Amino acid sequence: MTTHTARRTPVHKGPAAWSAILPGQPAPVPLPGDQTVDVAIIGGGFAGLAAARRLRQLDPTLTISVLEASRLAEGASGRNSGFMIDLPHELTSDDYAGHGDDRGMIALNRQAIAFARGAVEDYGISADFFDPVGKVNGAASETADVLNRSYADHLTSLGEPNERLDAQGMLQLTGSRHYVSGLYTPGTVMLQPAGFIRGFGEGLRANGVSIWEETPVIAFARQGTNWTLTTPKGRITAGKVILANNGHLESFGFATNRLMHVFLYASMTVDLPPEVLKTLGGQPRWGVTPSDPMGTTMRRIDTALGGNRIVTRTCASFLPGMEPSEADLRRTAAVHREKFADRFPALAGVKQEYTWAGHLCLTRNGVSIAREQEPGLFAAAVCNGLGTARSTLTGIAAAELAMGLTTAATRHFAAEAEPVKLPPKPFSTLGANLFLRFKEWRAGAE
Ligand SMILES: Cc1cc2nc3c(=O)[nH]c(=O)nc-3n(C[C@H](O)[C@H](O)[C@H](O)COP(=O)(O)OP(=O)(O)OC[C@H]3O[C@@H](n4cnc5c(N)ncnc54)[C@H](O)[C@@H]3O)c2cc1C
User: Quick check: CB of 14 below 6 Å from ligand 1?
Assistant: First the structure.
């Protein structure tokens, strides 16, 4: 009998701002004692909740428990910028163009978005938390404009609608003169990520799924035909287990030295008072991704999402120990203030109320892991940076595999290569951080 013991459990740095700006929620309920279920899911992010919903759809009689180390929406699923993107968005390319079967990937991304929309409708999640308004890829320089044009050509060749905005159009949208142009694509859904995840959890609970928060799984082992999961206050015995814990898959000894643990950082302003909003101008809600994937993502939200605020997301660090330091947060908070002031010089003094870090998991060859690892043990992990859609898809696929089905999603992940190995440490750490800093520097004003 092999016991998989967690070498570490998640540590979240900085507040989960998207959750903090929403009304409070009931106190968390940890797993109170020993229980037996048909399927246990480790991790309550996009992947874990999607897996639970898909299992419910496939067999309403199943007993299902989701075990979440922290609170719902405290992990990366509640710490992102909320762009649920349908199009190729290859972070390792210069202009996001995909490297493979773009049409196939778009179809799968749209399947994931439609599945999320189904959850919004079935569980009565606020439409403000799942807003199908599309997004803009902003360019701040002529060089970036060239990247945007190349991305636009690529999209047009795929038959995907896209619309160019000039500097005036960008000013009208954002209130910022920073951008020389933008590329609007209509298929992105803009999430209030914490509102969406919390609502998803409530909906699942109302449909009989148990969700135990502040319940880290610290070990699991196969015993006979079942799995036993150990948590601080109780054990779960389950016929099947889905590991939906993203990079912490490696903490249990899977895909060792094959996962890149990257942290992204973001800051959110205070709720902007009316006089500041007047100075700002622009529309009350918008999302701008950078035309260089390593640039700065900006987003404005309004009161229905938790206040009139602007979110700035930039900086990345490669941290195999899966824990950013306070110094990382300080460095990135300073960069966020600078990027914000570049875009909104008249608002330079506005306070950033929250700064936080979030854990991403990538592989060098861009593959996810949605496969059976051992009999009855399935993974839905490795978001590759775009987990709102991709992790939803890994969760769907893992649930389908657990039910013995072969579908478009399971076939997609089965056809992917294994994650390739990383170079040995410390070269991988030093090299990756130098590379990320270089890419940040090269992204410049973007
Ligand atoms: C700042 C930032 C901005 C981002 N912006 C975007 C964006 O705009 N669009 C986009 O698509 N993606 C974005 N992402 C990425 C996105 O947030 C992730 O891809 C997504 O959250 C991955 O979902 P997941 O369910 O696979 O993993 P996670 O959200 O990481 O969920 C895994 C869960 O497992 C839990 N867990 C881990 N170990 C254990 C254990 N031992 N026991 C119990 N529970 C455990 C964790 O607490 C966590 O809640 C961003 C990420 C960050 C950090």
Answer: no
pTM score of the predicted model: 0.96
Return left, alpha or beta for 432; rule: phi > 0 is left, psi -120 to 50 is alpha, else beta.
alpha
Asked whether the predicted pLDDT for residue 12 surpasses 80, the reply is yes
List, in order, residues 6 or more apart from 201 with CB less than 8 Å away.
Answer: 44, 49, 66, 72, 211
- Of the chain, the percentage scoring pLDDT greater than 70 comes to 93
Give the residue-averaged pLDDT of 84-102.
71
Residue whose CA is at the smallest distance from ligand 1 atom 18 = 387
- End-to-end C-alpha distance for the chain, whole angstroms: 52
Nearest to 78 by CA among 15, 143, 154, 164: 15
Instruction: Answer whether residue 435 shows pLDDT above 80.
Output: no
For residue 201, the tally of other CB atoms under 10 A from its CB is 24
What are the C-alpha distances in Å from 226 to residues 72, 189, 377, 425?
Answer: 27, 39, 10, 37
CA 322 → CA 259, 264, 429, distances in Å? 11, 12, 12
Q: Is the peptide bond before 28 cis (omega within 30 degrees of 0)?
A: no
Q: How confident is the model at residue 67 (pLDDT cuts 50, 70, 90)?
A: very high
Cβ density class 213-222: b for 16+ within 10 Å, e for less: bbbbbbebeb
Q: Has residue 203 got a pLDDT over 60?
A: yes
Asked if the model's pLDDT at residue 94 lies above 90, the reply is: no
* Spatial strand order in the sheet of 309-318: 163-166, 181-185, 135-139, 286-290, 297-301, 309-318, 260-269, 352-362
pLDDT for residue 90 is more than 70: no
201 Cβ closer than 6 Å to some ligand 1 atom: no
User: Is the CB of 385 inside a 6 Å radius of any atom of ligand 1?
Assistant: yes
Cβ of 78 less than 6 Å from ligand 1: no
